[in-house]
Amino acid sequence: QLQLVESGGGLVQSGGSLRLSCTSSGLTLDSYAIGWFRQAPGKEHEGVSCIGSAGPSTAYAESVKGRFTISRDNAKNTVYLQTDSLQPEDTAVYYCAALYGPCSIEVMTTTARILTEVNSWGQGTQVTVSS
Questions:
Q1: How does pLDDT run across 106-131, given as a tens digit for each residue?
Q2: In whole angstroms, what is the distance from residue 103 CA to residue 96 CA?
């Protein structure tokens, strides 16, 4: 599994915003479809959003549609997740990972299952939203 590094989390009030970043040293992210996932306390990892390796293909979980935006800056070798209108239920550790296939909700679900089975999640970045 491609090892990626997440950053940008923090503590915000309800309605606030954060921009999460996902990068890798020495590896080119634009060769991969990349997904953002999150794990809330006591829950399994869930796919939040993904972006294709080429072209503008993206996908979003229903719970974040209209509030989160995924993008990539190939010059900076970085994938971003802009999170707006954050709510307390968005509180979780957020992870990024290369997908085991093209960007889609179904592929994110499969990727999450595989990464959990092999215990290959990165360090993640904590997002905490206070009410």
A1: 999 999 999 999 999 999 999 999 99
A2: 13
Tell me the pLDDT tens digit for each residue of 56-77: 799 999 999 999 999 999 999 9
C-alpha pair distances (Å), 86 with each of 8, 75, 112, 117, 123: 14, 28, 23, 30, 22
**In the block, residue with structure tokens 């999150």:** 38
Strands, DSSP E only, in 29-124?
34-39, 46-51, 58-60, 68-73, 78-83, 92-98
User: Phi then psi for 82, rounded to 5 degrees?
Assistant: -85, 120
Between CA 59 and CA 33 the distance in angstroms is: 11
**Whole-angstrom distance, CA of residue 112 vs CA of residue 110:** 5
Q: Rg (Cα) of the chain, in Å, rounded? A: 13
Cα–Cα distance, 56 to 2 (Å, whole number): 21
Pick the closest to residue 71 from 109, 19, 110 (CA basis): 19
